[in-house]
Amino acid sequence: MNNIKTSDFNYELPPELIAQTPLENRQKSRMMILDKNTGSIKHKIFENILEHINSGDTIVLNDTKVLPARLFGSRENKEEIIEVLLIKELGNNKWETLVRPGKKLKIGTKVIFKQDLLEAIVVDILPEGERVIEFKYSGIFNEILDELGTMPLPPYITEKLDDKDRYQTVYSKNIGSAAAPTAGLHFTTEILTKLEEKGVNIVYVTLHVGLGTFRPVKVDNVLEHKMHSEYFNISKESCDILNETKKRGNKVFCVGTTSCRVIESAAKEDGTIFPMSGETDIFIYPGYKFKMVDALLTNFHLPESTLIMLVSALASKKNIINAYNTAVKEKYRFFSFGDCMLII
Predict the structure, then answer these.
(1) What is the pLDDT of residue 249?
(2) Which one of 215, 227, 273, 274 is most buried, by most CB atoms within 10 A?
């Protein structure tokens, strides 16, 4: 497979279908059921997910927690607002960031967010224009972020988020993401309890969502796109449950493309999985052979994104584009705060 066109993963989306705010009740989102083999489609509500997961199956959740990673400050002795989005912690108080306006932030530029509490200096400029900045602060960094930072909502969401917890999953635990694993936003503690009562195993993995989520595919040939690496971790306990699930002949359901990428990064060709921790830049597109993932709960993704390519690898490009066109016709809500699709 030498050439897969980025344009093959395009579809027409009316802007009014982009969800601007979360639903009042997380579990009441619409859920499209897509049969990955036949392409057949059914329309349900998310809380119906219990009907599609059997006792002995395992569901995989990404327990990452979103940083209030968007900061606003100004250059020293300047009034102009500088926006800084934290993407990835590099250690020693250094972070990889996206900044606006970028041209103003040369190496050595100092940014003040709050006098005597938080400031930073640009120490490097990366090939794609990201800035590495080093923070100086007084106190505990995460507490300062809670005070000064705002949730890093994607640029297509223009409404103000009244409750910042609605951009966190109910099971978020390990802080470090620059964006939410949005398929998990539909879950409530009630749904998780009902799954456990049914005999479904729930395992947790961690992937800190980073720049890969924000970076569009800019090349015509998908195979030339370079994924940004993101930190992930999967424990021995989770691996044992997953291996036992497959041995029994039960199914592995991943919640979100991030959980899917963890599982496929740690799985071996023989369909077993081992504990791992580190960086992954796995890029899943049509032609990829899944090692462990059987089913996927996912939101509706941006046209020509790596995420729509991943779901097309699982269910075929033809079935996915047809499903997306059906979702548009049926007026599903799209993207982070939108409805979801269960690929089985």
Answers:
(1) 98
(2) 273
pTM over 0.90: yes
- Burial class (CB within 10 angstroms; exposed 0-12, middle 13-18, buried 19+) of 272: middle
Model pLDDT for residues 33-80, shown as the tens digit of each residue: 999 999 999 999 999 999 999 999 999 999 999 999 999 999 988 888
**Backbone phi and psi for residue 307, each to the nearest 5 degrees, phi listed first:** -75, -40
Domain 6-66+163-343 fold is QueA-like (3.40.1780)
SS3 285: coil
Domain at 70-148, CATH from 2.40.10.240, 3.30.450.40, 3.30.870.10, 3.40.50.150: 2.40.10.240
Strand 230-234 and strand 276-280: the pairing is antiparallel
The CB density around residue 227, as the number of other CB atoms within 10 Å, is: 16
Interacting residues of 320 by C-beta distance below 8 A, sequence separation 6+: 34, 308, 311, 312
